[in-house]
């Protein structure tokens, strides 16, 4: 284990995991945890040190998100969207926006949320209907964003909207009088991630709020989502790890059918699948992160593959973990109950399992042009 991962692990074991079920019950991450993450500089992990951040490489970032995900998927989700926003602000934000926001974003004093999804625009982002109408040097935004992680508490929204020149991304101050938000509670999983619907009504922002050029919104969304996908893949590894630990501990102590559960071969089969899936998922995440660090464009596909495998493996591991805990695993407040519900969310966010299958298959066909040309008849 690298020294960085050991530090992440110790933090999670001390500060996050013991309270994760309390966070979930309260449907919020308390301020002291936000501050503790900030004290380590992890809200700014993706921003280079030269710009005030911590400047982790992608492998270290993935290790951080795996460890946080092992303890609490809600906190990891909040870290994911903040990281995506911080990255977009640093990479494509105007000089004025960076000067205004970056110092507080890297410490977590300003919390960011990512606003792409709308009631009618989910997997298909081309259906975004929110408009950004130019008015002098300003833009006026109108529309509704739904399922926004951290939307209840965010100080700064990264909002995607249509302009006459095409899709664009904007930074919207939550104090803008054109912003209103309503909490979304009792979701299946990541219950402490403080989801909200965010409504923009005649929401006027200056031209400097534009992130990237008008028309370059998809580029910003794709770049941020690629990072978010790596984070969710890593967080899914954390869920598998947590499921494995809980299952090993439980089956090593419970006697049924004349012996410890751990000594039944059918139980061992599930435990070995969990461990194998964990190692495979970690390797895929590590490959995607390494390619990012090397600036290799193959990282995009590698990240899809990593997220597809890790999130589906997390769902398998959580299903087996509940199964092997029996009724205990179904009990309200038991961690494996939470892992199970959180794992399902991992299969939906940052590109659903089906969207990943479609995308990965498309990549497979592009990789082998001869197979396309022959029409499959050989
Ligand atoms: C807990 C949570 C947190 C979230 N946080 C955020 C956030 O912070 N910001 C944000 O912008 N959004 C967020 N979302 C929204 C999330 O990104 C969307 O739910 C996701 O993109 C899927 O969109 P949808 O729910 O509208 O499902 P749909 O797109 O309607 O899909 C429904 C089903 O159809 C399948 N499907 C869709 N298209 C195809 C296709 N072409 N081929 C085959 N199958 C297909 C999907 O896989 C899915 O199973 C969050 C969602 C959840 C649950």
UniProtKB/TrEMBL annotation:
Q: One Pfam annotation, family name?
A: Acyl-CoA_dh_N
Instruction: Offer an example of a GO molecular function term for this protein.
Output: flavin adenine dinucleotide binding
Cofactor(s) listed: FAD
What is the top-level taxon of the source organism?
Bacteria
Q: Where is the Acyl-CoA dehydrogenase/oxidase N-terminal domain?
A: 5-108
InterPro entries noted in UniProt: Acyl-CoA_Oxase/DH_mid-dom, Acyl-CoA_Oxase/DH_mid-dom_sf, AcylCo_DH-like_C, AcylCo_DH/oxidase_C, AcylCoA_DH/ox_N, AcylCoA_DH/ox_N_sf, AcylCoA_DH/oxidase_NM_dom_sf
Acyl-CoA oxidase/dehydrogenase middle domain location is 113-202
Q: Does the keyword Repressor apply?
A: no
Q: Where is the Acyl-CoA dehydrogenase/oxidase C-terminal domain?
A: 215-363
Q: Which UniProt keywords apply?
A: FAD, Flavoprotein, Oxidoreductase
Q: Which family does it belong to?
A: Belongs to the acyl-CoA dehydrogenase family.
Quote the protein name from its UniProt record: Acyl-CoA dehydrogenase
**Record lineage:** Bacteria, Bacillati, Actinomycetota, Actinomycetes, Micromonosporales
């Amino acid at each position: 284990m690298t020294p960085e991962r050991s530090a992440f692990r110790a933090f999670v074991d001390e500060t996050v995991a013991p309270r994760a079920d309390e966070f979930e019950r309260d449907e919020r991450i308390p301020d002291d945890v936000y501050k503790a993450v900030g004290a380590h500089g992890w809200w700014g992990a993706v921003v280079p040190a030269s710009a005030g951040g911590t400047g982790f490489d992608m492998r270290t970032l993935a290790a951080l998100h795996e460890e946080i995900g092992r303890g609490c998927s809600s906190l990891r989700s909040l870290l994911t969207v903040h990281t995506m926003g911080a990255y977009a602000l640093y990479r494509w934000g105007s000089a004025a926006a960076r000067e205004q926001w970056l110092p507080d974003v890297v410490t977590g004093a300003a919390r960011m949320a990512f606003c792409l999804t709308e009631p009618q625009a989910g997997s298909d982002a081309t259906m975004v209907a929110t408009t950004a109408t130019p008015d002098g040097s300003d833009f006026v935004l109108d529309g509704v964003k739904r399922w926004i992680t951290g939307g209840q508490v965010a100080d700064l929204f990264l909002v995607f909207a249509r302009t006459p020149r095409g899709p664009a991304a904007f930074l919207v101050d939550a104090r803008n009088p054109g912003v209103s938000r309503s909490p979304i509670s009792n979701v299946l999983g990541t219950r402490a991630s403080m989801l909200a619907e965010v409504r923009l009504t005649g929401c006027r922002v200056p031209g400097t709020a534009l992130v990237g050029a008008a028309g370059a919104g998809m580029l910003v969304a794709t770049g941020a989502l690629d990072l978010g996908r790596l984070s969710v893949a890593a967080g899914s590894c954390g869920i598998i790890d947590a499921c494995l630990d809980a299952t090993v501990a439980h089956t090593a102590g419970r006697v049924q059918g004349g012996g410890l559960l751990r000594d039944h071969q059918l139980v061992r089969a599930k435990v070995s699948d969990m461990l194998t899936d964990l190692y495979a998922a970690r390797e895929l995440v590590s490959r995607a992160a390494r390619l990012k660090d090397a600036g290799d464009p193959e990282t995009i596909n590698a990240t899809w593959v990593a997220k597809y495998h890790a999130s589906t493996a997390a769902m398998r591991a959580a299903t087996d973990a509940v199964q092997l805990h029996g009724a205990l695993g179904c009990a309200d407040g038991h961690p494996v109950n939470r892992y199970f519900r959180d794992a399902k969310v991992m299969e939906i966010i940052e590109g659903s399992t089906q969207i990943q299958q479609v995308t990965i298959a498309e990549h497979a066909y592009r990789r082998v042009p001869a197979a396309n040309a022959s029409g499959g008849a050989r």
